[in-house]
Amino acid sequence: MVVLNGQTLNFSEVHRILYHGDKVTYSEESMRKVQESRRAVEKIVAEERIVYGITTGFGKFSDVFIDKDDVGALQLNLIRSHACGVGDPFPEVVSRAMTLLRANALLKGFSGVRPVVIERLLDLVNAHIHPVIPQQGSLGASGDLAPLSHLALVLLGEGEVFYKGARIPAKEALAQEGIEPISLTAKEGLALINGTQAMTAMGVVAYLEAEKLAYQAEHIASLTIESLQGIIDAFDEDIHLARGYREQVEVAERIRNLLSDSNLTTKQGEIRVQDAYSLRCIPQVHGATWQAMNYVKEKLLIEMNAATDNPLIFDNGDKVLSGGNFHGQPIAFAMDFLAIAIAELANISERRIERLVNPQLNDLPPFLSPEPGLQSGAMIMQYVAASLVSENKTLAHPASVDSIPSSANQEDHVSMGTIGSRHAYQVITNTRRVLAIEAICSMQAVEFRGKEKMAAATREFLENGRNVVPNIFEDRVFSTDIEAMNKWLKDGDFSF
């Protein structure tokens, strides 16, 4: 059971909730703050004070006063009108993360919602009811308004959900779990949608997959080093300490450990004096990716525990402040950075694939073919890797450098952070397939060298990998192999 308090949610807890189905609840102290904040909202309504989003309209309508008898209708209209997302839905795991993160943000006690709103969000998480949330339609400022509105609809018994493997009306899933829909009151609709939880949820899922993939990239690269009889001296600790980047030093250390008992690596001058950059510079390139990922992780950790709606309520309602914490710029930058960093793992991997299949660059059979000429072997797999790398280059164009004004120019600068997070996730998906191709090629190549000469760690990878993709004895539909390896890398519970 993970206890949320709006302050301390971490990646380990999120991973357990998203991928292992851990239950969630709230701390009593955090709920006490929620209740205090709620009392402040009710007082504002009773006194008919003019406070944005509580007794006024939204966006350009912020100057329109709303009678206290209409504040509930105001919130309902907000959710329905803003639920206009389009495109394919977010993956279920992202919807689950979004619901979790919205509850955690509200538990900080600055948003003025009733406890029942948070309880219902946690009910969805614990019952594995995941709102169907279209991916497109958020500008990443004023919060992820469209995506979060689709989430909020489910609390009202409206919209659709993923539940027990099916896409069904929300009211049916709630009824099956005995969960009562709620009716929104003052401030609650705005509190539910005025936040960065769509981009952050997508970012968290992307980061967790990227972290796993970065470790896998080192393991697959080690297999390629053996396949090409790479020079191990390039990974000597003194080289990397001399530069001083911690992540670079750590990558080199992990490669050395993986290959410590290999009889397929060489010393400088033994076969050649220097390897190509795609082998020799693995610590420098992969290490730089880890630097970027550490930055991304830091920003996501802050945002997972951030109050991002507007207005925020302080001092028991004596101070109600309109601000801009919903602006997604910090996460927009982080997501663009993540896309660029992971794209480079694919970029350098594709160059290693070329060295594995190009007979002008190695002494292996051309294109690792069992019968060069008659059979093409891995020739077109390299084409696929090159295509994915090229696609990544377009996806890595920063979304955060764009902004289009909205709400009659009241909201005149936005982050596009949700677009950035979606692009980062697609880059990760593409990169995994590139690494799957490198794994297939390096497994084939290293067997020409002799698996008995391999390091224990890489030989274990090879033996397990052969249960996923068999040896290439003749040409076949390699798309099936790439997808099988891709699935193994994504879903496998092995660790490096």
From TrEMBL:
Q: Which Pfam families match?
A: Lyase_aromatic (PF00221)
Q: Which pathway does it take part in?
A: Amino-acid degradation; L-histidine degradation into L-glutamate; N-formimidoyl-L-glutamate from L-histidine: step 1/3
Q: Tell me which domain of life the UniProt entry assigns to the organism this sequence originates from.
A: Bacteria
Residues annotated as carrying 2,3-didehydroalanine (Ser) in the record are: 142
What is the top EC class of this enzyme, as a single word? lyase
According to its UniProt entry, this protein's organism is: Sporosarcina koreensis
Q: Which PANTHER family match?
A: HISTIDINE AMMONIA-LYASE (PTHR10362)
- Could you list this entry's UniProt keywords, alphabetically sorted: Cytoplasm, Histidine metabolism, Lyase
Q: Which locations, inside or outside the cell, does it occupy?
A: Cytoplasm
Where is the major localization of this protein?
cytoplasm
For the cross-link 5-imidazolinone (Ala-Gly), the position is 141-143
PTM summary from the entry reads: Contains an active site 4-methylidene-imidazol-5-one (MIO), which is formed autocatalytically by cyclization and dehydration of residues Ala-Ser-Gly.
GO MF entries: histidine ammonia-lyase activity
User: Which reaction equations make up its catalytic activity?
Assistant: L-histidine = trans-urocanate + NH4(+)
The record's family statement is: Belongs to the PAL/histidase family.
- Please state the Enzyme Commission number of this protein: 4.3.1.3
Name under which the protein is recorded: Histidine ammonia-lyase
Name of the coding gene: hutH
